[in-house]
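go over this:
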Amino acid sequence: MGIVDELKAIIKDAGRVSVNETVLENHGKDLTYHQSSLPDVVVFPKTTEEVQAVMRVASQNDLPVTPCGVASSLEGHTIPVKGGISLDLSLMNQIKEIRSEDFIVVVEPGVTRRQLGKALKQYGLFFPVDPGADASIGGMTATNASGTNTVGYGGMHQHVLGMEVVLASGDVIRPGGLSFKTSSGYSLKDLFIGSEGTLGVITEIILRVNGVPEVIRAGKAVFSDLESAGRAAELLLKTGVDVKRIELVDEQTIVAVNKFSETNYTEAPSLFIELDGPPQAVKEQSEIIESMLEDENCLSLTFEEDEKGRQQLWHARHEAAMSVVGLTPGKQLTSTDVCVPISELAQAIIETRHLLDRYPVTAALFGHVGDGNFHVCMGVDRHSPEEVAQYKKINSEIVAYALSKGGTCTGEHGVGLGKIDYFYREHDSATIQTMKTIKAALDPKNLLNPGKIFKD
């Protein structure tokens, strides 16, 4: 019996085990410049038991397994570079339990961020981790996603309480649980958050959620130059203003957003700001921000008073990456991210903009500056060796600067394929060897998402 027949015998539904050429091609690439690599077969499990059975077949036959969801990650995480099985978890998309009184929800990995948001709304709850894309919760957990709300609410590490994981052997473990805190043994769940599918297949996630605030107020501050915008963001953070979101968007990004989304925002460096809480507290915080920004070359500060205006503002921010790519038709989205200490943020943004201006590229700079994380986005033709080489050179210079200031090569995108070399620059050999030891213990045959994070 061949591998495909073995898998069909497990899954029962022949339509969920595919060697169709189009299905293989769709699972062999992502949104970015990374070169495609086809799997041998794509499997769509619906239960943990099916995932277990697939992993046992893979282990018995030494077949690589690459878990995937929506495939909205930006560093080639879901490309099966060694072939084998692409394990598509999108059909495991049930919200299994909402415990509103405990501020807890239990979901399968294929549940998407927007799907979860709609389900929570009727309970007066929301899930604050917002990377922009309608990513799957499993993928967000595997890459330790964060996003625009991080400064106020934290990322996936702060919201994942527990999980169910199928190991390479097919065994199931359930690290963490329903409690908000524990001191019981090793925090195994934290090993899998950000592991990018290299340690196990996450089949269930227990999440901590939040109550919807009484008032949410969003504002847009426009500045005369990028330096002033970066300095203002740093000032707001240092002075303890209770900002839940603070995003920096440079002039080039605003130009792209106006064209792509047919908006009419002032084309200048801007901070997108959001506050929430009791009405009086939000009012007082808004007034403090207005007073503080007057001394930072702020040209204007406007707050959106209604939900429609607020949603439009953040929609424009979330469309920033695709807006920039829209200026270079036919090219693939390419976005790098780094994170630096808060005190280094303003200068890092200025240096990065100067760097970009030295190259003949259409590039935008924006990011979740509330936690020192920012992004550079451009379009790259993955079929042009010259363009790919130029992007890699730009990326290398951005990362080198961040590392020189005590930062990290990636604040939220993850290592995947694109940041492997920089991962080795960032960490000492003993630290990397410790990570490899953990990988070898959980996946001794190196079957789970091989070729990611570590050099072969």
About this structure: DSSP finds 17 helices and 18 strands in the chain. Residues 385-404 form the longest helix (20 residues). The CA atoms of residues 227 and 409 lie 22 Å apart. The two ends are 31 Å apart (CA to CA).
